[in-house]
Amino acid sequence: MTAATATFTALRPRLHGIAYRMLGSVPEAEDVVQDVWLRWHGTDTDGIDNAEAWLVAATTRRAIDQLRSARTRREHYVGIWLPEPVLTDDSATPEDLQELASDVSVAFLALLERLAPEARAAFLLREVFDENYPEIAQVLGKSEAACRQLVHRAKEQLRDERPRYEVNRDLHATLVRRFAGAMASGDFRSMREILAPDAVLMGDGGGYVSSFPKPMEGGVRIAQLLYAPSIRNDRGMRVEIASVNGELAVMRFFEGALESVQTFAIEGGRITAIHVQRNPEKLARFVRGEGGFKMLPSL
Question: Whole-prediction pTM value?
Fold first, then answer.
């Protein structure tokens, strides 16, 4: 392995993490990282003083271009577009998982869709990857003042929708486990009590399977929807819990096939939002191995 290859390999998880947070899609992130690798492989790396800065800049710029193209496609997406969920390593420390969940949860990635590509890049580089403003300015080809303004406006744009306080990880896990148990056993009353009265459910079927074209509102309505399959369980419904995007999530199966991955936002001790990924293309990477479901590339 050459020194250039070793450098890229060591930084690949960071580059993939940037691209995934920018795009909310594993295959699109992998395409970006592959494109950057080809550029890196064809570059005279001996003349590059800071390899990490070069690779981060190249990845971010390529992700911005990819996001612009993706947003055009998403305008014609059937129903609600949600980020692709990713299995994460539940053997990591609680502190690492808490940090990961704060910046890569499905709810957070869905929220980032509100930002224009350059604003999203500036916000992520500063708030998630802790880059300084001179580096961000070099990546985006803008002045430091312009980058500060981009980050400020992005934070203002997201402020009203982000949780008002950090959710305790243990509380989140407890509520998800309780909700999963109630769903599996058909305990409608418990499901209704765990859901906030104004809870929202958003589902992504991608046009391949049925889903709601707009968010479903109301905890009682959502509880009724998720309770319905347990009334007549002739499809062999099974519920499992897994670590997805740094948080506990629910995987629901019918007749042994994965039907959906459900992730949760919690506030005030109750579930306030459920993101239901049903698009088969976005579930295809949840591959079962001998030891359970395989974890995907590092976030």
Answer: 0.88
